[in-house]
Write a structure and sequence with these properties.
Elements (H helix, E strand, L loop, with lengths): L1 H8 L7 E6 L3 H11 L5 E7 L2 H11 L3 E5 L7 H11 L4 E6 L4 H8 L5 E4 L3 H13 L2 E4 L9 E3 H5 L2 E7 L2 H17 L4 E5 L1 H13 L4 H7 L2 E5 H6 L2 E2 L2 E2 L1 H18 L7 E5 L1 H7 L3 H17 L2 E8 L9 H9 L3 E4 L1
Parallel strand pairs: 1-2, 1-3, 3-4, 4-5, 5-6, 8-14, 8-15, 9-10, 9-13, 13-14
Antiparallel strand pairs: 6-7, 11-12
Length: 335
């Protein structure tokens, strides 16, 4: 049995898999620890009893695997997982929860976690979940109605969420034109949320590139909206509201997909709303919006391109937040 875990997740013999267990009940942590002891290579390096402690321990220790409860004091498991993904992105997360319904499971996995095991089935499924996750697969308890037991993590989470840091408007227009043109020429739709001046520049440039953008507008596959106006519709108390965000974008995605000629349309979604937030000094709001965009790629077939003006970054002072933004994206471009 020992070889199964080495082949699943380790690159060299003798390498242990470092595990952090997070639950507010000591008896449950002991139960999980006893299950893991069946495999000596699964080394429990720490335990935590609340969400804040879990975040701090993850940042300090960078464990290979975190077994995380949802209903935690001080900071719930969902928000703890989001923060851990920023502070220790290489740590794999498996949620252990009392709930066996689909909604909490979808919310949990939207954080970037790789597994979800119902506590009542931990005795029979936890080790299988660990093995699957270390192998690069997603694992969901068989008791969750409407979800397959295991699913390829790559197939589920592969997405394109890229960022362009640009030094002048020419670079901005060039990168967005390439992104939009590639989608429209493949009969896929494009949704564009940019400033008024950039909307006009993009329209002219697309036409110069012989993209029949007028036909796409009539067909409903090219949707161009003002970034500032749409941003105002999703903000609550200075931060983007998840419900308003998804309410606003879901209708656009569904309408554009329905209008597309492609058999399985993939929406190109690009904009500079995050760049506007950053330029105004609203760093937390920009980072929160980036996370919502990552959540969007899990729910829909979308490719996303964001843009930030390099002039809005203040060098060493913004280094930490700059890295945080880069970590939210599948690719980073800077010109």
């Amino acid at each position: 049995m020992r070889e199964r875990f080495w082949h699943a997740g380790c690159t060299e013999m003798g390498m242990s898999i470092r595990v952090l267990i997070v639950d507010d009940y000591e008896d449950w942590r002991r139960t999980v620890r006893d299950l893991l002891q069946e495999h000596p290579e699964l080394q429990v390096i720490c335990e935590a009893s609340d969400g804040l402690e879990a975040v701090h321990k993850a940042e300090e220790l960078h464990p290979d695997l975190i077994l995380l409860d949802i209903g935690l004091p001080k900071l719930n498991g969902i928000e703890a997982a989001r923060q851990i993904r920023q502070l220790s992105p290489s740590s794999k997360i498996i949620f252990l929860s009392q709930d066996n319904s689909l909604d909490p499971e979808e919310l949990a996995l939207s954080t970037g976690a790789q597994g979800y095991v119902q506590k009542a089935r931990a005795g029979s499924e936890l080790l299988s979940a660990v093995e699957a996750v270390l192998r690069g697969e997603r694992f969901v308890s068989g008791s969750i109605k409407g979800y397959k037991l295991t699913e390829s993590l790559e197939a589920k989470t592969t997405h394109r969420h890229e960022v362009q840091f640009y030094s002048d408007d020419t670079i901005f227009v060039d990168s967005f034109t390439r992104f939009i043109a590639a989608a429209l020429k493949a009969d896929n739709p494009a949704i564009v949320l940019v400033t008024k001046s950039h909307r006009e520049s993009l329209l002219q440039r697309l036409k110069a590139e012989r993209v029949d953008v007028d036909a796409a507008i009539r067909q409903g596959t090219y949707i161009s909206l003002d970034a500032a106006n749409t941003l105002n519709t999703i903000m609550v108390d200075g931060l983007p509201d998840p419900i308003l965000f998804f309410e606003g974008i879901t209708g656009l995605i569904e309408a554009a997909s329905k209008a597309a000629k492609a058999e399985h349309p993939r929406v190109a979604f690009c904009g500079e709303r995050v760049g506007l937030l950053w330029a105004e000094g609203r760093t937390e709001a920009a980072i929160r919006l980036e996370q919502l965009c990552n959540d969007l790629t899990i729910r829909y077939d979308v490719d996303i391109l964001c843009a930030y003006p390099l002039s809005s970054f203040r060098g060493e002072e913004d280094r930490h937040d700059f890295r945080n933004i880069c970590s939210k994206h599948s690719a980073v471009h800077s010109h």
